[in-house]
Write a structure and sequence with these properties.
disordered C terminus, mainly beta, disordered N terminus, globular, four-stranded antiparallel beta sheet, about 500 residues
């Protein structure tokens, strides 16, 4: 069950890339590469300074930055690079083997309309991250959850004893707390319904509830005897006061933030550290994973698990509920397991002892599964992060096996359910421990033991792609639109329902 291993780092997977290698584009490519270098040097490589404009309380150590050289707290936030653009990012030279994807750069607008159409006619996955931020002192611990992205576009990350907020719109960094000696941030979670509330789990077993808009701590939740690495706000607006916390003491506590004594129930079926905790989209079921290899599903009305799955062979940290289908759950196992499993809980009832009937598919990934996220924009797509040896992110398509139309016209047919890999995103040099998703669902941020954050625009909304395709790729050969045989749609991916 020791999933906190495999820290071997492989060489950087950055590969040489190129723009379009057609001879007619050689001059354009040369100019574009030079402009791209200049843009990176002038814009991406600058360091964001820290100052006192955030109006922090100077009387509290929790709002000071710890200077390791002087062994003291200070307000001089320029002494250390925290969530700054990484200077180690290399300029990738042109190569004819693979296209260089330029993101967040005005060079994209220099392409002709025909070039844009050629790129957008099929799905393009990034070969490089849009941004790379430094994250020093990110704890290399499989069981912790140290990254989350709020509905107000604020990224929260725990780095050692400190927690920082990074504004994705302004690139400003705010140091929020700094723990006492021998303590550290072990878990965090934003509320989706009250997006100004942030819960922070600490190694001493306490959980702090912060109001970020007021820059103040509202209360401290107690009850655990060991570190709190998993936290989950309920997603139901009618239960927005409900928050669940999981700990190394193997217990899950459900809190009601309206009550002076916040405890309302306890879930005790796990026997080792709880490292995964997620409420489903409508807030009716809580999924938990732990180092005892169990995946449990709970309802707040009972202190006994609704379902208990023992199919994984290692710790279950990676848990994600599908936003597309009620009861569809993905889980990932640690080093001794290496699988992603898809579950359909609607196939079970509370008296069903055959839990295997809920398992739709199990896919061997070849490495430790550290985190999972379902795409909000692309139906039945999800992304996973992994450990040794590739330290990659992988994008998958879940094939439900259901076809609503058949060649014989007989209606719905059910085939094999499976996961199909769409792409690997390489660049991290150590295991990728954390994932979070932007509010619009287009960008995934990954945090790894190489102490970097990398931003990947891999889930651009299908409408942004299909709109241009529909304008340029639909050829109507007859003015009689009622005759569907006269409409020819070219370059369409008929296997992707989003297109």
């Amino acid at each position: 069950n020791n999933s906190n291993t495999n820290n071997n780092s492989n060489n950087s997977n950055n590969s040489n890339s190129s723009l379009d290698s057609n001879s007619s584009d050689k001059n354009y490519n040369s100019q574009a590469e030079e402009l791209y270098k200049q843009e990176l040097e002038s814009t991406l490589f600058h360091t964001i300074g820290f100052n006192n404009e955030f109006n922090l309380n100077s009387n509290s150590n929790s709002n000071h930055f710890y200077n390791e050289e002087n062994k003291s707290y200070t307000n001089d936030f320029t002494t250390k690079r925290i969530l700054s653009f990484s200077p180690r990012r290399q300029i990738v030279k042109a190569n004819a083997s693979s296209p260089l994807r330029i993101f967040n750069n005005n060079l994209v607008t220099r392409k002709t309309k025909e070039q844009k159409i050629r790129v957008l006619n099929k799905r393009v996955f990034p070969q490089q991250p849009e941004q790379v931020l430094e994250a020093p002192e990110l704890i290399d611990d499989f069981y912790l959850n140290l990254l989350d992205w709020s509905e107000k576009n604020i990224l929260a990350i725990g780095l050692g004893q400190s927690l920082y907020l990074w504004n994705a719109e302004t690139s400003q960094t705010i140091p929020l707390i700094n723990c006492d000696a021998n303590e550290y941030v072990s878990g965090l979670n934003w509320s989706k319904t009250e997006s100004h509330l942030l819960a922070i789990g600490l190694s001493n077993g306490n959980v702090q509830i912060w109001d970020i808009e007021k820059n103040s701590i509202l209360r401290t939740l107690e009850g655990h005897s060991a570190r709190v690495g998993a936290i989950a706000f309920n997603n139901d607006p009618n239960r927005r006061y409900l928050i669940s916390t999981g700990s190394r003491d193997s217990m899950i506590i459900n809190h009601d933030l309206r009550l002076n004594h916040s405890h309302i129930s306890y879930f005790r079926n796990h026997t080792q550290e709880v490292c995964g905790l997620k409420w489903n989209e409508n807030g009716t079921m809580l999924a938990s994973g732990a180092n005892d290899n169990l995946l449990n599903v709970w309802q707040i009305e009972s202190e006994d698990p609704l379902f208990c799955f023992d199919h994984h062979q290692a710790a279950v940290k990676a848990i994600a509920w599908s936003p597309w289908q009620n009861g569809l759950l993905a889980s990932g196992g640690g080093t001794a397991d290496k699988t992603i499993k898809i579950w359909d809980l609607t196939r079970l009832n509370s008296n069903d002892n055959n839990s295997s009937s809920a398992l739709l598919c199990s896919h061997e990934t070849g490495s430790q599964v550290c985190a999972l996220q379902w795409s909000r924009n692309w139906k039945n797509e999800l992304i996973s992060s992994h450990g040794f040896s590739q330290n990659q992110l992988s994008i998958w398509k879940y094939n439900s096996g259901i076809n609503t139309t058949t060649m014989s016209g007989l209606g719905m047919q059910v085939g094999p359910r499976s996961l199909t890999k769409l792409a690997d995103l390489n660049g991290h040099t150590a295991r990728v421990l954390q994932l979070a998703q932007s509010p619009d669902g287009e960008v995934i941020v990954s945090a790894a033991a190489d102490e970097t954050l990398r931003f990947w625009r891999c889930f651009t909304k299908p409408s942004l792609i299909s709109n241009l395709n529909n304008t340029n790729n639909i050829n109507i050969t007859n003015s009689n639109l009622n005759n569907t045989n006269n409409i020819n749609i070219t370059n369409s991916n008929l296997n992707n329902t989003n297109n």
